[in-house]
Structure to design on (1494 residues):
């Protein structure tokens, strides 16, 4: 594609790594570009076509992102499914089949024993030709742990060697990038490839982690890489971030099969600048991604996720009490998890522990695998576990959780009344309780290791187990005590009044809410999983309670906590700045500091400027009329200044150290025999943002957030007094919250 | 409730009618209030309780809004249903029953003839004791027109006499109010009462209008009135607008039974300032409203709307072609409608026509009723029509639209293959074509009359008719030509491959999109009506096409067009300002104007200030150090200045005309025997927003939008040069778009 815009000096207008972009400048540049294209479009047919194609390139890009991230999600689902089963055995009918598909193709299988077919061989069958006895069990156990360790080792090594940015969930970093920070390579092709591969390995290793968060990172990598095909997005950091917001929506859309929820997640949780045009495009990308994934059909059930459910029984108003209890549990667990996980991650950062990521991963994997194998609910993959917990026991379900007494004596067709629990349910309850404890403890140590690891699935699993336990408890209570006052109005004998699967779902929502502090997007995602408007109210009650409880114990969600732990310069848009400080309390120079370094508009030589550049590290300098008046003319960025002066030294004839630099539009006529002047009017920002020294910081913070500023100048009665950078604002916020202001690492 | 904040002088900090609020000041005031409550909460238990109740008052308010607007929507639905049927007859079994309920209670009715029961008497039966023959038809015709005229007359008279603001859909005005404009009484109790009553009358009169838009106005009235119960919201214009945004969501939620769609509508279409906290609360309000309405169950089917549908047949990729055609139709119709409707409304405003609203309404009602009665599809209420058009013909449907040949010969149980159309379908097609023409023409004249009138339902009806016609056409084409290449891969003989009801729904979405230019919210609302993720793609294809086509023919949606027609000071947040002008081109004073009127900080007397106040009409004055230096100190609002000076004259001993006014923090010691000075430091805004004269207007517009400013001062090299108000910005935008800048009426 052509590009009408030319940059006079290469490098002017770009950013260094670990710097913050200037949203105002980026958006201005995009508008200039757009204006130029629109103006030229009237001149020739070719330019008109270019203008139209430029307008539609955004949609094309969304389509490509949807297709690519949908396909990758399908690939990840299928591979992870296969490799998870590989830990238990292989299919002799074709080693590329997973357990379920293997038995689908089998002739020797009844519906009752769907899982058992001669084609599927466990490792003990392959090695010692039997599946019976203690030795076979030990062989299977050993192979399970071995495969888990192998997968984990591969994952952590690949991450360490090829793409260190591929670890974690990626959401804290994506939030920071979307807020305008630059981390080169974080969304690059190596990260994409390694993250995709290692995500499959990490999920298959049986660790307590999910693929949902990393899928957002994968989708954002797709978005970023595809941006390179379009000039409009490649060259403009602000426009590119619009695309990344949409890609994040597509990522959640494929992770949960929830396109609307994905868009709301992007809006609520990750995005910073989200104009309405982006909303519509994100929705498109999310939808394309979801339908791509569905046509791949990774689970063979034409659903986008493993844990899609449909409930049939309505809930009763009284059930809000247990739902709210689940909300409280979710909030408590969320707050506890964040606190302990952050403490552990801080320990990892500050002690020797962080130097041995491979050993750490292997140890955690070994512990997880050894503890997981004996219990069938920890052995199965977490999303299968969630799927089983959400499931409403039907007539044909053969799982232990559905082992009720009199289960085949139904009064009416299709209706399943509350029944006394059988032996299977009681043993399942014990196993689930152990699973709950294991998941609660091990997840704390897992999240934050140097492998791709999402938190959605483990949180949902914790909540779903707690919910199912409570649900079965309630069901049995209602069965044995249906004459109690709280039950007798709505839960008569033989009625189907309590759905334990719904409790599991509500619990999952509560725990997810407690950890991430999502609100609307959480409810909408769960709504899209059930498909019934009916169940929004329980979900909302649990999500609200969980958020209130968790917020009371700690304001930050897990992503914000990790952002702060890593010291990313992220200016939170949700929190109000509640202190009564003024701009003069925050600006540099402080009262006893040396004066503000300024440039004058027409009295400094090249040498003076070079001295200032070498003696200071500020990222920009205000330009004033004269040092005495301190009246502000404009602002010039250090990077632009260095490039321009160097460029002039090299190319412009006769510019020497004593040449005077003019920041004015017209330089005055010079006497003869003086060295030629250097005019830098073109790199001067003539509309720097200013506030007065008495402006409350709450307004300054608001301006920084809403306009996406990098810096702001402070004046008093029209005289320049100081400067506030985004870093100063972040430090001040940290200071006010009694945190260490120097934890803000980057500028 | 208590209020810790006290205003030193009553009136300072409030706004006049038809003025724009200062978002920055309002938000600062709310933060101050919040800070004060938080600080006090540590002192006593009572203050702590107050602090907690203050924090939860927002949620309580949302609950109340949801309950009230849900109840009102139920009331309106039931009354409108009954009064619509009253035009045709009454129930002798109880005159409070509508036609459907009347026959439900009857013993003498078969399922086939659900509509016919002896208890329901048409007017001819009551008056001339027969329902047969031409005379009975004329009697019924006459009574139908008479009732329609009576309802319309009552509606327009009530609006005219009691609440002129109750007319129209209200959405353009609510958008303007939410952007920060003040229209006293627009959301008051009289408007609420009269709008509720007249909405029922207007809908029942059979005019081509809907209740959905006005329901948003009704919900916003509820929100505004309930705000008066809470100090936090009553006294703060910015906080109140957050509540109104949520109320708008609740309004759409009950109008379409779509809580998520409602929230997105509020976000996308009506709201201006929509922090994430509001998103969550809006969702809560929308959900409460929807469930309140459902427990009222106005349609007796436990659905929130009359036109809820469930489709069973998937769509085929090829069908995207007719869906896109429907999108084009919707876009064309939308653009045409907006253009003609605005032309007609402008004619009404500028000619004698606008002086006779009652006659206008009666004439339009008479024409509508006379043309509507002979055709059953125009005679029924528009939402019933839409319901019938969306409906997928089942085995038991007795409507003419389902009169296919061989309709009872189904191959498999529950599956309805494509069949040849019977006589009923052909006659229905003709009647629908006539209905389409009538609706297209009459809606242009109806929307904008002095009665409550929504546009959603008529637009959807137009689209649904067009869609159903196309759908039936496609179905017959596929039936008779299933060997054509386009059909033979997926539509074999005897298969159920085309659902005409889906075409109707897609058409409805297309037309609604063409008129309102909604995008995500439109698709989500329609999705919530069908409940299947499957059908999002057709809806999205149609909505995208429709928006592109309509945008190509005219940028504005109907609400924006009406905002501009009425000259409301609304700063559109979606459109980018694309011109290359600078702040100096827009600011006052212009080049040849007299100098900017400024106050000096310490050298003006009370008399000087009073002279300036009486000689100018500016809404505020910059305060400078001295006229010579023009260095800016702050900004003072005219209203605050007048109130403070008057107050000082009345109360403060000895303040006379020669008293000097000080805008400084400390007034210098005065020599004895000079009149006492007047200190106005407290009303001075010490942090006025400033931009330089060379700031591009695109950035200025952005600042005005994002920060919600009322005015902004312009400086050059640190000296005050001029001022830009929101009105100046709006005028400049209008001028750049080649519109009459003086159409911006209010300041």
């Amino acid at each position: 594609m052509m590009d009408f815009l030319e940059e006079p000096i290469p490098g002017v207008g770009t950013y260094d790594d670990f710097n913050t972009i200037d949203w105002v400048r980026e958006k201005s540049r995009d508008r200039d570009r757009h204006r130029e294209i629109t103006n030229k479009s009237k001149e020739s047919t070719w330019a008109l076509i270019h203008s139209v194609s430029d307008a539609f390139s955004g949609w094309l890009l969304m389509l490509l992102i949807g297709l690519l991230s949908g396909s990758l999600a399908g690939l990840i689902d299928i591979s992870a499914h296969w490799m998870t089963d590989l830990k238990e055995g292989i299919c002799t009918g074709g080693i590329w089949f997973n357990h379920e598909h293997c038995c689908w193709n089998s002739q020797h299988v009844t519906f009752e024993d769907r899982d058992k077919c001669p084609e599927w061989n466990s490792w003990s069958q392959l090695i010692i030709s039997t599946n019976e006895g203690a030795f076979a069990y030990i062989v299977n156990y050993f192979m399970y742990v071995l495969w888990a360790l192998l997968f984990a080792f591969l994952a952590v090594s690949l991450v360490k060697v090829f793409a260190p940015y591929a670890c974690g969930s990626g959401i804290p970093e994506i939030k920071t990038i979307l807020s305008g920070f630059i981390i080169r390579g974080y969304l690059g092709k190596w990260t994409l490839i390694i993250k995709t591969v290692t995500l499959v390995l990490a999920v298959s290793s049986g660790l307590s982690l999910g693929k949902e968060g990393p899928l957002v990172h994968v989708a954002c990598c797709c978005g970023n890489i595809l941006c390179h095909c379009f000039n409009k997005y490649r060259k403009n950091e602000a426009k590119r971030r619009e695309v990344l917001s949409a890609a994040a929506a597509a990522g959640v859309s494929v992770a949960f099969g929830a396109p609307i929820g994905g868009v709301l997640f992007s809006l609520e949780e990750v995005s910073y600048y989200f104009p309405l045009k982006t909303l519509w495009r994100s929705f498109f990308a999310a939808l394309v991604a979801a339908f791509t994934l569905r046509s791949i059909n990774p689970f063979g059930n034409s659903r986008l996720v493993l844990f899609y459910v449909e409930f049939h029984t309505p809930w009763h108003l009284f059930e809000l009490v247990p739902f709210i209890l689940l909300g409280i549990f979710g909030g408590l667990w969320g707050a506890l998890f964040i606190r302990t996980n952050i403490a552990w991650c801080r320990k990892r950062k500050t002690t020797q522990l962080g130097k041995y990521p491979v050993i750490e991963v292997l140890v955690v994997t070994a512990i997880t695998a050894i503890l997981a194998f004996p219990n069938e609910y920890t052995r199965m993959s977490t999303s299968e576990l969630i799927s089983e917990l959400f499931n409403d026991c039907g007539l044909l379900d053969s799982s232990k959780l559905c082992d009720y007494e009199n289960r085949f004596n139904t009064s009416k067709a299709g209706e399943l009344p509350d029944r006394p629990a059988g032996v299977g349910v009681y043993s399942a309850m014990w196993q689930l309780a152990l699973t709950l404890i294991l998941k609660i403890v091990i997840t704390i140590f897992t999240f934050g290791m140097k492998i791709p690891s999402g938190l959605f699935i483990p949180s949902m699993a914790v909540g779903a187990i707690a919910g199912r336990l409570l649900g079965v408890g309630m069901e049995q209570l209602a069965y044995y005590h249906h004459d109690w006052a709280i039950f007798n109005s709505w839960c008569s004998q033989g009625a189907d009044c309590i759905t334990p699967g719904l409790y599991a779902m509500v619990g999952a929502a509560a725990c997810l809410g407690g950890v991430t502090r999502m609100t609307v997007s959480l409810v909408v995602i769960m709504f899209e999983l059930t498909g019934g408007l009916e169940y929004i109210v329980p979900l909302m009650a649990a999500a609200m309670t969980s958020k209130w409880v968790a917020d009371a114990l700690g304001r930050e969600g897990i992503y914000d906590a990790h952002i702060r732990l890593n010291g990313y310069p992220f200016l939170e848009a949700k929190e109000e700045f509640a202190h009564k400080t003024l701009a003069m309390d925050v600006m540099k120079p402080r009262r006893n500091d040396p004066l503000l370094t300024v440039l004058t508009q027409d009295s400094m030589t090249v040498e003076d400027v070079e001295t200032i550049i070498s003696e200071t590290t500020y990222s920009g300098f205000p330009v004033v009329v004269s040092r005495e008046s301190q009246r502000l003319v404009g602002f010039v960025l250090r990077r632009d200044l260095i490039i321009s002066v160097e460029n002039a030294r090299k190319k412009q004839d006769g510019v020497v150290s004593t040449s005077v630099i003019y920041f004015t539009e017209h330089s005055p006529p010079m006497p003869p025999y003086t060295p030629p002047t250097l005019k830098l009017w073109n790199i001067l920002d003539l509309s720097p943002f200013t506030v007065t020294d008495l402006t409350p910081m709450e307004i300054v913070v608001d301006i920084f957030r809403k306009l996406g500023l990098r810096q702001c100048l402070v004046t008093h009665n029209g005289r320049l007094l100081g400067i506030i950078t985004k870093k100063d604002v972040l430090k001040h916020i940290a200071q006010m919250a009694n945190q260490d202001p120097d934890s803000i690492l980057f500028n």
Remarks:
- Chain A touches chain B through 67 residues (CB under 8 Å).
- Chain A is about 55% helix and 5% strand.
